[in-house]
Recover the amino acids of this structure.
């Protein structure tokens, strides 16, 4: 199955408006190929990023969204606010949101539903903690995270979803899961999708790997059978690194 690879840069809470503009001007040099390139700047940089990239195929996406469209939720950003500035995709379920902002599977499930109702695509993150892996519970954890969120969706809604497998112990630590661990988990996730949504959807859904993807390991990770690209944190802030990672996905 030939699935188009995605390389998505998650800028997290980095980049002032000036820094963002500078990096985006460099990114414009990346000429397009066979890879879907996405960047997720902070909310304050989204609008300007979209206009700077208006003639580019690089997609600007959001790092988070609230489950309601309007209301008394001080400090939150709604799905319709995102779509009103041209955002088409949002990251939901990142482990930093789960850990530092107490986003439970129940909250995440509502966010996914709201995003889809507002015609947003979702990059949905799952991942186990180091202790889960040490105890051999990684498959159970991922299954539970998926069961309580994506498995409620119907066959049309699931088409809006890209899954990102991000073992928490590999995020920002410089430790990458080894290729066996990555392929094994991606295959496991695809099989869960197969059981719930059928063969066609499971062969089409894209599953990204995230967690210390760097120029030096990207090619090997992206060559794995069930890996369809990456969600890149630290390395997406450095133009030359991101550029190399995109090239690695290009084959
Ligand atoms: P990292 O982050 O590449 O810095 O490990 C990945 C992520 O959090 O998506």
């Amino acid at each position: 199955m030939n699935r188009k690879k995605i390389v998505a840069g998650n800028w997290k809470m980095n980049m002032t408006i000036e820094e963002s503009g500078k990096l985006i001007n460099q990114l414009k040099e990346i000429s397009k190929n066979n890879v879907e390139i996405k960047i997720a700047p902070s909310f304050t940089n989204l609008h300007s990023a979209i206009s700077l990239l208006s003639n580019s195929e690089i997609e600007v996406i959001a790092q988070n969204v609230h489950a309601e469209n309007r209301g008394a939720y001080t400090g939150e950003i709604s799905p319709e606010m995102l779509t009103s500035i041209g955002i088409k995709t949002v990251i939901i379920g990142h482990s930093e949101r789960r850990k530092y902002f107490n986003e439970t599977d129940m909250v995440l499930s509502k966010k996914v539903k709201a995003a889809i109702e507002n015609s947003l695509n979702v990059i949905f993150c799952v991942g186990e903690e180091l202790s889960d892996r040490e105890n051999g519970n990684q498959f159970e954890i991922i299954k539970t995270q998926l069961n309580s969120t994506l498995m409620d969706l119907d066959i049309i809604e699931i088409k809006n979803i890209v899954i990102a497998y991000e073992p928490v112990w590999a995020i920002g630590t410089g430790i990458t899961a080894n290729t066996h661990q990555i392929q094994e988990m991606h295959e496991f996730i695809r099989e869960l999708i197969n059981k719930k949504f059928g063969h066609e959807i499971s062969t089409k859904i894209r599953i990204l790997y995230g967690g210390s993807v760097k120029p030096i390991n990207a090619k090997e990770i992206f060559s794995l059978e069930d890996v369809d690209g990456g969600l890149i944190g630290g390395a997406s802030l450095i133009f030359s690194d991101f550029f190399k990672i995109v090239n690695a996905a290009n084959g």
Observations:
- The chain has a mean pLDDT of 96.
- The longest strand covers residues 5-10.
- The chain has one domain: 5-250.
- DSSP finds eleven helices and eight strands in the chain.
